[in-house]
Amino acid sequence: MPILPTWGGGSEFEYKGSVEAGTDITYGKKRKIRVEAHQYAALRSRFRGREVPVSTSRTNSRRDSLGAWLQVNVTGTAIASYVAPILVHENYAERIGEHEIHVTR
Asked: Rounded to 5 degrees, what are φ and ψ at 24?
């Protein structure tokens, strides 16, 4: 299971699976959340070719950001700080500075 730093680098999380198969993300005190393959596919379709704010806020995600999309389409829990590093780790996106990713495929 890969262990990655969160987007802000303040802690780590681990995940099992892949963007293509879906991921089981374990974070915090053994909290778990699943992101399905079809949800990753929809996310990639929505943002492919764009630079997108990650927006990891739990309460005020920027409009048209990865975080806002995830809260509407996957879970109300703020998971952008896990999903963005997974996308970068698996080469579906590139990190652009502190706040954005470029979704490449």
From this structure: -105, 110
Residue 79 tokens read as: 């998971």
Rounded CA-CA distance 44/98 in Å is: 20
Q: In this structure, which amino acid lies at residue 89?
A: H
Instruction: For the chain, give every domain's residue range.
Output: 3-103
pLDDT per residue as tens digits for the range 11-70: 999 999 999 999 999 999 999 999 999 999 999 999 999 999 999 887 777 888 999 999
Q: Which amino acid would we find at residue 52?
A: V
Count CB atoms within 10 A of the CB of residue 10.
8
SS3 66: helix
Match 């990639």 to its residue by tokens. Answer: 44
Beta bridge partners of 23: 17, 35
